[in-house]
């Protein structure tokens, strides 16, 4: 029923669904900017921790260890993507990751259907950005409580 064309036309006629963008490009991979946003959120969190705890040597040591883990966590996909770039390009039709502007104007195929590029970017970056802002807020509260 979900993919029934008659059902979709009925909903579109009732103005419950916007018309589909038939000429929009469809992507199955994220732009590199999405990974940059996630990395920037992690970096902002670590910067907040460093600024909060750098005066205490024991706490700074723990932040240093966490920084090493973050670099390994973020660096592993980069290294693997570079090692397997030929396989990735073969899988995606010899095309690199889309530019951010093209991705936002297009659509992305997911397992459950097609969504807009902007919605995909929001879904991927919402949690890392939320955690970064929460971390900064907690660090400000710790500094003000001293």
Extended strand count:
3
**Assembly form of the protein:** single chain
Mean pLDDT: 84
Radius of gyration: 21 Å
* Unreliable stretches: none
Question: Biggest β-sheet, characterized?
Answer: 3 strands, mixed
Percentage of β-strand residues: 5-15%
Tell me the strand order in the biggest sheet.
1-2-3
Helix content: 55-70%
Give the class from helix and strand content and strand pairing: mainly alpha
Order of helix and strand elements from N to C terminus: HEHHHHEEH
First-last Cα distance: 59 Å
Number of helices: 6
* Approximate shape: elongated
Molecular structure report:
Helix content is 68%, strand content 7%. The protein is mainly α and 146 residues long. Helix 2 (32-53) runs antiparallel to helix 3. The protein has a 3-stranded mixed beta sheet. The chain has helices spanning 5-13, 32-53, 57-83, 85-91, 100-105, 117-145, and strands at 26-27, 107-110, 113-116. The longest helix has 29 residues, at 117-145. It is built from 6 helices and 3 strands; from the N terminus they run H-E-H-H-H-H-E-E-H. The N and C termini lie far apart (59 Å). A hairpin with a 2-residue loop joins strand 2 and strand 3. It is elongated.
């Amino acid at each position: 029923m979900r993919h029934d064309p008659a059902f979709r036309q009925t909903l579109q006629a009732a103005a419950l669904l916007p018309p589909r963008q038939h000429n929009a490009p469809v992507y199955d991979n994220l732009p590199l900017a999405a990974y940059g946003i996630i990395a920037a959120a992690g970096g902002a969190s670590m910067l907040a921790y460093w600024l909060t705890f750098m005066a205490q040597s024991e706490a700074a040591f723990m932040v240093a260890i966490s920084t090493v883990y973050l670099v390994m966590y973020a660096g592993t996909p980069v290294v693997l993507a570079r090692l397997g770039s030929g396989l990735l390009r073969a899988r995606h039709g010899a095309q690199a990751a889309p530019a951010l502007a093209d991705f936002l104007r297009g659509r992305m195929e997911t397992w459950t259907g097609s969504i807009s590029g902007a919605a995909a970017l929001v879904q991927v970056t919402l949690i890392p950005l939320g955690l970064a802002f929460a971390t900064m807020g907690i660090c400000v509260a710790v500094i003000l409580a001293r």
